[in-house]
Structures are given as C-alpha cells and as structure tokens.
UniProtKB/TrEMBL annotation:
The chain crosses the membrane at residues 20-41, 291-311, 386-412, 432-454, 679-700, 735-751, 766-786. This is ABC transporter permease. InterPro entries: ABC3_permease_C, MacB_PCD, Macrolide_Exporter_MacB. It is found in: Cell membrane. Residues 20-249 form the MacB-like periplasmic core domain. It comes from Nibribacter koreensis. It is a multi-pass membrane protein. Residues 297-413, 683-792 form the ABC3 transporter permease C-terminal domain. Keywords: Cell membrane, Membrane, Transmembrane, Transmembrane helix.
Amino acid sequence: MLKNYFLVAVRTLRRHLGYTMLNVVGLALGITCSLLIFLVVRHELSFNANHSKADRIYRINVDKMDQTGPTHSSGTPSPMLATFKTTLPEFTPATHIYREEGGTFAIEPTTAQGAVKRFREEEPLLFVEPAFFELFDIETDGVNAKEAIKDLNTVLLTKSIAEKFFPEQNAVGKTLRMNNLITLKVTGVIPDAPTTTDLPYSMLVDYESSKKINTFMNDSWNSTSSNQQIYFAAPEGASLKQAEDRLNEVAAKYRARAPGEKERFVFQPLSELHFDERYSTFSDRTVSKTILWGLALIGMFLVLVASINFVNLATAQALRRAKEVGMRKVLGASKTQLMTQFLGETGLITLLAVLLSVVLAELLLPYLNQLLEVEIKLYVLQRPDVLLFLVILLVTVTFFAGFYPALVLSGFQPISALKSKVATARTAGLSLRQVLVVLQFTICQALIICTIIVHNQMEYFRTAELGFDKEAIVTMPMPAGRASELMALRSELEAHPAIKSTSFALTPPSYNMDMKMSLRYDDFSIVRNFDVNVKVADEHYLKTFNIPLIAGRMYEKGDTLRDFVVNETFLKRVGETNPQNALGKKIQINGGQTVGTIVGVIKDFHLTSLREEIEPVLMGTFTRFYFFANAKIEAKNSKAALAHLQKVWSTAYPDDVFDYEFLDDTVARFYEEEARQSYLFKVFSVIAILIGCLGLYGLVSFMVTQRTKEVGVRKVLGASSASIVGLFSKDFTKLVLVAFVIAAPVSYYFMEKWLQDFTYRIDISYWVFLAAGALTLLIALATVSVQALRAALSNPVHALKTE
C-alpha cells in the first residue's frame, strides 16, 4: 500500500512538473531562511553556557540615577574586590579581570643574525588571577593554568597566537615584550577561546602585570573603567538581594553621593551578559533577545508564506484533479486513503524542499558568517538539534501545507467531482485562498516597511551631525606614556601639505573607551557623583576635530591637568544656565588630588553611539594619558599623507608597529549590529516577496487555464489586451490593499518600539507606508500581468476549442 502511494505521488508530481517546481523552490527558500535563522539564534543563545558554574556566576555592575536619568556601567573600582571578599566571604571564587584591547609585541631573535620581530595584535588579551580558572571552565590541554600565571610577568598564549609569534617553535619558555613596558614569559600554550564567549582572549596574562599597562588603575573608589570587571560564584541557594544590600551598605561608606543621586552595585547573571545592552561586554557585542525572537518570528513567517503558496496552489489545482478524485471514490477509495495519498505527495515535496534547503544553507553559510562575523557550522548529521529542527519542519510544513488541500480534495462528492462542479470554502465573502493571499502579502508588506525604517535609521546614523568632524581624520594608537616622543616631531608631522592639523589625546571624540571620575565643583561642598567623562587632550584638539567653543578659550599647552574646558551638558549637571558664569570656577577631581579652573565651554558632541545621551565632558591636558595621535588630512591625497605619517611615526617609535584607522570607520563600528539587521531585513524582504510572487504566478497560471474559454469569448467580442489584464489584476489589487491596511499599523507598532532603544532617532513618516504599499502592489501586478498578458495575446480560436 505504502509503495503504491509513493509511486502514485511520484507520477503525479512528474506529471505536473511546473506545479512541483514552484512548490519545491518556494518551500526551499522559506526553509533555508528558517534554518539559517535557527543556526544564528542557537549560536547567540549558546554564549557563556559552556561553564559548569554558569548558573551561579555573576558580574558586579553599577546602576546610577540622578536628575537626568539612569546610567549603567560594568566597571568597578579597584578596591571593590577586597571589600567584596571581606563582606561576602562565602561568595567564592571571586576575581578581577582586566581587558587590554591588543597591543604591540616584540620577539627577540633566536640567533645573533636574526632581527627583532614585531607584531600589532588587535585581538583582546585578559589579565587574570588564578581564581579565574576556578570560576570559568577554560580549556588548557593539560596545562596547569593556575600555576602558570601565579607569578608576575607570565603569560599563556593561545595556539593561534603561539603559531603567529613562534612559528614551528615551542613557545613555552620564550619571552615577548608588550608595548615596550613589560617583558612576559610564556608559561604555557592553550586552545583558542571559544567563539561563543563574552570573555574572548588571545592570551591570558597575570593580573598584577596589568598595573604596569593600565595607567588609569589606582586605589580610588571614585574611578572606574569598564575594562576592569569583577566576577564571582554565588553559593547554592544564596539570597542575592540580601548579598547586594550588604555590599552596597559597605560601599556607601567609600562612595559619596550628592543629594538626589542614587547608586547601587548589582549582580548580573553570566547568562544575561550577552543580551543586556545596558552594560558592555569584553566581546563588544550584545544582542537583544527581542531581536533574536524577532528573527525567529521572521523565519516562521517565511515558512508560513511558502506554505501558504502550497495551500493556494493545491486548492487552485483542485479542479484539475477533481475527476481523478471522483474516479478513485467510485472505485472504492475512502476519504482517509485519499487524505493519506495527498499528504504523502505534500510530504514528498517538503522532503525535496528540505534537502534542497540543506544544500542552499551550506552554500550560504560562509556569506552569513562573514556578514555577522561569527563561525557557524551546519553539521546536520553531527548535531542532533539541527536534525531535530529539520524533522520538525518537515512534519509541521507537511501537515500545515498539506492537511487542508488533502481535506478539500478528499471531500469532493463523486458525482460533482466527475462533472468538475466543485467549490472551495469561503469566509466572510472571501475564499480561503484569498484569505491566505492577504496573510501572505501582509507579511511581505510588513517586512518591507520594517526594512525601509531600519534603513532610514541607519542612514540617520551615517549622516547625523555628531558635533565634530569625522571625515578624513586618521587616528593612530601610540605606546602608553610615550606621547612626548611623537609630540616632539609635530612640526615634521605637519610639514607635509596633505596634513592639515594634528592632535594628541586619550581618545578621539567618539571611542569605545573613557575615563570617568566624580568631582567637586565651585565651592567643593558637594561631591558630584554623575560620572564626568574626562577627555585628556592637547591644545590642538578642538581645531583638529572642528569642535566649536561657545565661551572662553581653549586651554594652553601643558603636561598635567591645570585648566579645564567643559561641554554644555556639564553645565546642565552642575546647574549653570549661562556659560559665561562657569568661567573661572574651580573643579576638584581624582579624590581632591587635582584642582583646576574652567577656562572654556564647548558645544556638546557625541562620545559614543546615538543610542546614548551625551555625557558631561571635562577636558584638560595630561601628556602621560595621550594614547592616540590624530591627524586631519586631505582626502584626495590620503595615500601620501599616510606614508608621511608612518615615516614620522616610525622615527619616534622604531621599536613599535605603525597602525591606524580612519575615524569614520571607528564611528561606523558603533552601529555594526544595526547594519547587520538592516541587511538581513532587506534579504528577508526580497525572499518573502519572491516566494509570494512564485505563489501568485502559479495561481494566475491556474486561473488563466480555468478561464481560457472565457478569455477567448471576450476577445472575439472585442475586449482589448489591457482589459483582460485588468480582469485578472483587479481581484489581486484588492487583496494587496487589504493586506496593506493590516500591515501598516502592525509594522508601525513594532518599529516604534524598536526605535525607542535609540536616544537619537528618526520619526516614522507616512511616505514609508505608502512606498511599501506601492512597491508591493507594483510587484504583485507585474507578476499577475505576465501570465494575464500571455492569455490576452493568445489566439482566441485556440481558446474557444479548449475543453
């Protein structure tokens, strides 16, 4: 019996090859997208899940609230860990982790004739304590990692870095010099960090060595850096709320607060790090679970759109198979047998689509990995979850797409079927087929609307005024604490006509690193605990980045903090309404160790992405903290400018590796996730429209076949080709318009919620909806018109002879 079902299904599908191909291709497109989305969602949800203590590991964050709203940080003061261990000794192990964003490494030659090898490593490295290996399950390939980094100036290299630094050599026992500040001894080689971690590393260095690298590090409770974080394991059954209260009670003795300002150290589960956009991670990547579930929903919609195609085409084909059904029933076939036959045909089509989707997914994965900067493998046979997902899809799509058509076809009455007098169900004046077309195009139009809005927001990011000039500015990292060597060559740097201006600073205006401190203002009676962002920079900073002064002057050249320039937001935080009134006021920072005078006020500029509000800024000179050289160059002569910069830089730092980046690329990295979302929306919208068009094409093909004789009669009576095309198009036009009425408000609701994540955002304009509706209507009409025009141009004599 099963063999007979299979043979009949194969013959039927071969007989109607066009119908079969439309369904296989449509289903394969939807299933391929859903499979790729499943792989992405699974990849993101697996972050930080490989540790045995994952459900008990927490990070200490700090939440603040003042009159301007909440702020969140993952950085903690240096003394916090000792206080934490004393206050909560049962919460162990607990450890500091400090991240350094790459560095310059020098490898001494192994022979007298060899040359020093120098590398610029961009991948982050972590400075960790032995407790790090008690807390996290780090693969070490048998290396005793706790012992390997217990001594000062010791390092564990990952295999890829060991091969890069010491090719075809045993790296253990070798030394390397980092940033010309510390010499590290290699005590072991361990496997590369997993790709699904928010603690990525190219090497692990003993924590004490970080104090020579991190010049910000001090024992002040009022200074934090997001590059230094604390992690710990909570005991089974511990009350985290009570533990938080105990820690905050102790910390309050050291962290003074201004009236109305609130601050609380909070414990964040390791499982939430990757999905909480309020706090940073060492991977510099967070993904909202809302986005992930949105992607999953899009995957479901694409499969649904493809399944709707199948239902529409199957029910449209019902008339073609009516006599077959009638004959089978006359010969004794039961309804159950007929349903089994038709579900079997659907299952065979779906199986072909699934197999094709696996091939397509394997071909597309490299491009997806490149787009998302991830490493995802398909491994259908090796990964039970992937295989289970495909089986679930196969069964679900077979049932959803096949059940109703099988029910309709098997339910025909033999006499009516043999006379081809059958009809499909109608709901509120619409056939089910029309309802499904409306649903299909509602999804398509919603995706198009979302795509346009996401694209517009990305364009806003790209073109928005940031308060400084980011075009044709080159930023070059310098060895820590050695800015004076390049500053001495400023005249040589600016001697080339393609170099317009240079400046030395802690960071460019917008950069994913900052230095924050609390302060006392004016009479010093109140500690202002609102995290002023200290931007140390030389006197040429405003000129180089074209940041306008609105009051006072720029400070003069100096080696240490003495005079200050502040921004407009700073004035709002301290209650000044007139910039002139702030000039001459005193500021005390760094626990009272530094006192300076405000000499100028600048306009606000964006320090990070447009998701965040502009922070209060305090600028001053401090040569020891100049980590970047910045140069404004002529864009048309950039090649010569870069060559000149490298030449002068190499003169100042012959033992280091020259590296640079254009500032507009740095700013663009703030929006990498949104750019990827925009691209994915575009791709999925195109695929949804393509699937919908395949379905429309098939539907109109059947309609044309069914109404061939009617078209012939109309042409004989003088109907024009345009009127015949209009005959087939008007019904679908109505359906697309109904879909638009549903899609527009739904899309507006969800995109308005998405835009709320951005402090600076676009307004959703009505033209977005009109453009999406018009585009969908044009595509649908073009698809319908292809087949309708073919019918209109056919010979009416042949049409009238059609049986």
